[in-house]
Write a structure and sequence with these properties.
Elements lengths: L5 H12 L9 H9 L6 H7 L5 H19 L2 H4 L8 H6 L13 H13 L1
């Protein structure tokens, strides 16, 4: 766990056990305490490759369903236009990530900004 994200592990130990220097603990005790961290701990989420905890994803999924039901009652919903975005999908990392673009010249950067504002 420490190799994956030491900062997250330190925060989790401080929050859960009020231990600021987990390395000062005997290794066996630190390992036992690390294994006992809750599923919502930062390091647990990091190790699982998750961006959000299960309760948060469940709440977001419920919000998505409610939003969808309300949207379906509108004129846009009846014509299948402007469907609301899924919060759960964004939290889970399934949403489209913005593309990273590099520029060699400042003029190219400002031209891209103007083009984005127009389009």
């Amino acid at each position: 766990m420490a190799a994956a994200d030491e900062d997250a592990l330190t925060c989790d130990f401080a929050e859960t056990y009020h231990v600021l220097r987990y390395r000062a603990l005997p290794a066996r005790l630190a390992a036992t305490l690390a294994a006992g961290l809750p599923d919502t701990a930062r390091i647990r989420l990091r190790m699982a490759g998750a961006n959000a905890s299960a309760p948060l994803l469940l709440a977001a999924a419920m919000l998505d369903r409610l939003s969808l039901l309300v949207w379906m009652q509108t004129k846009d919903g009846q014509k299948n236009r402007r469907r609301p975005k899924s919060i759960a999908e964004l939290l889970a990392g399934g949403g489209a990530q913005p593309a990273v673009q590099a520029f060699d010249r400042e003029e190219d950067f400002w031209a891209a900004i103007r083009a984005a504002d127009e389009g």
